[in-house]
Amino acid sequence: MKFFIDTANLDQIKEAQALGVLDGVTTNPSLMAKEGITGKDNILKHYVNICNIVEGDVSAEVVATDLEGMIREGEELADLHEQIVVKIPMIKDGVKALKYFSDKGIRTNCTLVFSPGQALLAAKAGATYVSPFLGRLDDISTDGLNLISEIRLIYDNYDFETQILAASIRHTMHVIDCAKIGADVMTGPLSSIEGLLKHPLTDIGLAKFLEDYKKGNS
Ligand code: G3P
Could you name the active-site residues (predicted)? Predict the structure, then answer.
């Protein structure tokens, strides 16, 4: 399972990278705005800065919603750095854009996916990644994890190569549940990754080992 961090915050990206388990980064226009990154030039520079911190894929989202605009923006983003994956929304022109980029060998991440049918279309159009938003489904009393399972089943039925990128992960249990289902990638906040290492018995056990070592060596 690949671990991506879902943020545009450079300090958090550096911290996750330093842990040694980071495989990539996802961003979106809301995450960019949260960090105060505005204006096309600053946004493009920020993507390059992120690529220079991590070794893996970095999703960069188009803001156009028409095919021509998505193609223009997507090509510009893909030209920025070899690690860039063009993030395209699941709308009608988005499906056409996925197919266009797939034919050109440009990698894509189909975002804002909330149903198995949307995921099927994204795979048919040749998306590299599909991003089902499980947290936002949970927010409206719908089982987000069930969507990940349904997409896994459909993709496995037909050997689709599109990777399931479980997105809108909110906490550590989401990560574990997605790993059980077999999501290829998860993207979440730093806290969802760091939460994996926590266990009180580890802390208690370590304290006891150190105490006993001191006793034996004093
Ligand atoms: O990767 C998608 C993500 O950015 C959305 O997360 O927490 O805003 O639903 P959230």
Answer: 87
Any catalytic annotation for residue 99? no
| CATH number of 94's domain | 3.20.20.70
Rounded CA gap, 118 and 132, in Å? 9
The residue among 109, 157, 153 whose CA lies nearest residue 133 is: 109
> 148: which residues sit within 8 A by CB, 6+ positions away?
132, 134, 164, 166, 178, 181, 183
pLDDT at 134: 97
For ligand 1, whether the C-beta of 163 sits within 6 Å is: no
Count of domains for the chain = 1
Structural domain range at position 110: 2-216
Task: Point out which residues pair with 136 in neighbouring strands.
Answer: none
Measure the CA–CA gap between 74 and 79, rounded to whole angstroms.
9
Q: DSSP state, 55?
A: S
pLDDT in tens, 96-114: 999 999 999 999 999 999 9
Q: What is the pTM of this model?
A: 0.96
What percentage of the chain reaches a pLDDT higher than 90? 100
